[in-house]
Amino acid sequence: MEIRNKANRIRLFTLKTPQMRAFHFSWFAFHICFFGWFGIAPLMAVVRDDLGLTKTQIGNTIIASVAITVIVRLAIGVLCDRIGPRRAYTWLLCLGSLPVMSIALADSFEAFFLARLAIGAIGASFVITQYHTSIMFAPNVVGTANATSAGWGNLGGGTTQILMPLIFSGMLMLGVNEALGWRLAMVVPGVVLFLCGIAYYFFTQDAPDGNFDELRARGELPPVSGENGMGRSFAAAAKDVRVWALFVVYAACFGVELTINNIAAIYYFDNFDLTLATAGLIAGLFGLMNIFARTLGGIFSDLFARNGGLKGRVRWLFIAMLCEGVALMFFSQMQILALAIAIMLVFSLFVQMAEGATFGIVPFVNKKALGAVAGIVGAGGNAGAVAAGFLFRSESLSYQQGLFYLGIAVVIAALCTLVVRFSPEVEAEETAAYRDAAGDSGSGALSLR
């Protein structure tokens, strides 16, 4: 799929162009999705007491919240190729708002588990975000655009940890008890998700020159080839070993971030004798690093590509992954609160830069099956979170031990970057495309105008 008129600069403070509207709406939609997806996580101490959940049951709900996302992410990328990111995002947001609000009706572990399982589908929003920015921005800035939109979306993991306890406290101030308070608090993100889905439909378009149906009508995109075409797109991506190498890599960075989002508040609450609000605030710092950390990963990916081409992008990804694993092992050993916070921030920096570096490579693996590649790699993040979830559901394994083993796994996963290689022809083609786009931009990738 060749999309014309991609933007070669990111003009942050404008909504005049379709590229920048897609950029801002996609990161904001993904950001809001975190409130539905992980809004319950900072309230789990209250939910645990209300529903009488054991540690194993809490671990099972953590796994449920990310398990279904693996399947939905695999499908949503191919769906984007078919109907376009605009309609795909609208449907996901509007339908996803329903289980977010219905979790308020849960009165047992089974009902709560099923609600979290259904809510997990919202996590597929990440794939649409990356797909939309990938087809809107040129090679010289696509790494930065992908990383920034995803990073500011992931920032929702931090703001959720901070704001949901405050929303819960606000409900208590209205005179309701804790059992009703956490339920009412979850209705808020559900309503916002639905409204965001409606706005996405009316204020964005699929590509710089129009929506996919319009481009197909003008002959600028190949026609939809039915279910077989979708299957061929997925098969082309699934047969590429590089896609699965990036699947593992993303499992070891985004999967780790999702795991930390799920356990950080209760980890600090239980291990450092903090209040729920304080634990949520500290846990939120991990996600707040996304305001710049993932963007840095994309910026460095684009900078490494300036002189090293696609090999440079892969080299940077390996460095970020290695540093992430080492930092996580150090974090797992911290017993003093101040040191735990400091090392957590270092770890957060590298885990999010690794995510940005991963999707600085994805747009170049297979342009004809971009959605399928993005979907498979994106699903890796949730597959990693599912695998990591089993470390934290065992009654015999402490959180500290689980985090240490997870750090070792990240270091091993970093070696998968060695599999990601490109032919000399593709390297030359992308180097030329990068120089053409950079030559036309006239200045840096990021602009405040």
Explain what you see.
The longest helix is centred in the C-terminal third of the chain and has 40 residues, at 293-332. The mean pLDDT is 91. The protein has helices at 18-38, 44-51, 55-83, 85-102, 109-119, 125-134, 142-173, 178-203, 212-217, 226-238, 241-271, 276-288, 293-332, 337-358, 370-389, 399-414, 424-441; strands spanning 10-11, 446-447. It contains 17 helices and two strands. Helix content is 74%, strand content 1%. The protein has one domain: Growth Hormone, Chain: A. The chain has a two-stranded parallel sheet. The chain crosses the membrane at residues 21-46, 58-76, 88-106, 152-174, 180-203, 243-268, 274-293, 314-331, 337-362, 369-391, 403-420. GO terms for molecular function: nitrate transmembrane transporter activity. It is a multi-pass membrane protein. It comes from Halomonas elongata (strain ATCC 33173 / DSM 2581 / NBRC 15536 / NCIMB 2198 / 1H9).
Please sum up the structure shown.
With 449 residues, the chain is mainly alpha-helical.
Main sheet, how many strands, which sense, barrel?
A: 2 strands, parallel
Number of helices: 17
Note the beta-strand portion.
under 5%
Number of domains: 1
Strand order of the largest sheet: 1-2
N-C termini distance: 30 Å
Structural category: mainly alpha
Output the helix-strand order.
EHHHHHHHHHHHHHHHHHE
CATH homologous group name: MFS general substrate transporter like domains
CATH topology: Growth Hormone, Chain: A
Organism: Halomonas elongata (strain ATCC 33173 / DSM 2581 / NBRC 15536 / NCIMB 2198 / 1H9)
Family: Belongs to the major facilitator superfamily. Nitrate/nitrite porter (TC 2.A.1.8) family.
GO molecular function: nitrate transmembrane transporter activity
Membrane topology: Multi-pass membrane protein
